[in-house]
Amino acid sequence: MEILPGVHCIESVHKHRLLRSYLLVGEQVLLVDSGFPYTAEETILPYVDREGVPVKQIDWLVITHASADHYGGNHAIKRRFPMAKIVAHELDADSIARHDAFVREHVDVLEEYEFAFSGVRSDDPEFLRLHGPEVQVDWKVHGGEQINLGDGWIVTFLHAAGHTPGHLILYDARHEIVFAGDALMGDGIPDVNGKLVMPPHYFEVDWYLETIAKVRALNPQYILATHYESMTGSAVMRFLELSEAFVVQCDRAVVDILESSREPLSSAAVVAALRDRVGIPGADYQYGLLARAHLRRLLRQGRVLLVSGEDGNTWSLVS
């Protein structure tokens, strides 16, 4: 569906959640995110083939970050449009291009402080089904680079860390759009009926807050994100406020969890208690990443104490 001149939203549903890629059609054509392998095959490429969509070549495939639902379709897009250049931030590029790097940088990271997340292997058939064949990244950016799609239609890449270390957002100055990917997550990801089914999650709290501030400073007219309906007008600032408020809520929840315990808590115990406090369904990975991020921040601030012993790591408030 063309939602603004030259800006197309390509929408599908995965596990009752919206999954959106965006196609910018100027003199050059740019695709934001390739979805899962089957998203590209069953939704994106048929959309491009549809009568009335003026696309003969995709010139740029910009991957917002290293999550399978954003880059798993890279191989399918490159097979169809071999001249398309894949663009990603340098901090996520290796994880996008190589399965072993993804597991090391985006899964094994939870082993720190015993937020272990087991059962993910890069040679597992289900992993490969979702992530697709490996495809190299053609242009590793660091933020600030621009592409001219023609007739002065400038798209700028901005580093928007938090959800992942190398998350990118795109700013379309002509239409005042932020293509946000998962850089902002409000108070959670909803299903198609509006029920929250996944909590916001991020690698570092401060990075995530900086991204919220960066988007607020752009004062966009639209936020187009992967798992949400299009936002414009007052909904833009409301979404930013919700994103920020969740961080405050989660920070307080972690402190309250430690404060209410009579003894130091293991990482697993903090994760379980945080899941109960937040109250949104979610995978162990999401809640492990969330707890880790807030505990790391509190540790840097000198507000929590981490003790490593024979029985593992424990956390407590600094008295």
Give a structural overview:
- With 319 residues, this protein is an alpha+beta fold.
- The chain has two domains: 2-243, Ribonuclease Z/Hydroxyacylglutathione hydrolase-like (Metallo-beta-lactamase, Chain A, 4-Layer Sandwich), CATH 3.60.15.10; 252-317, Winged helix-like DNA-binding domain superfamily/Winged helix DNA-binding domain (Arc Repressor Mutant, subunit A, Orthogonal Bundle), CATH 1.10.10.
- It is 37% helix and 25% strand.
- It is built from ten helices and 18 strands.
- The longest helix is centred in the C-terminal third of the chain and has 27 residues, at 234-260.
- The radius of gyration is 20 Å and the shape is globular.
- The model has no long low-confidence stretch (mean pLDDT 96).
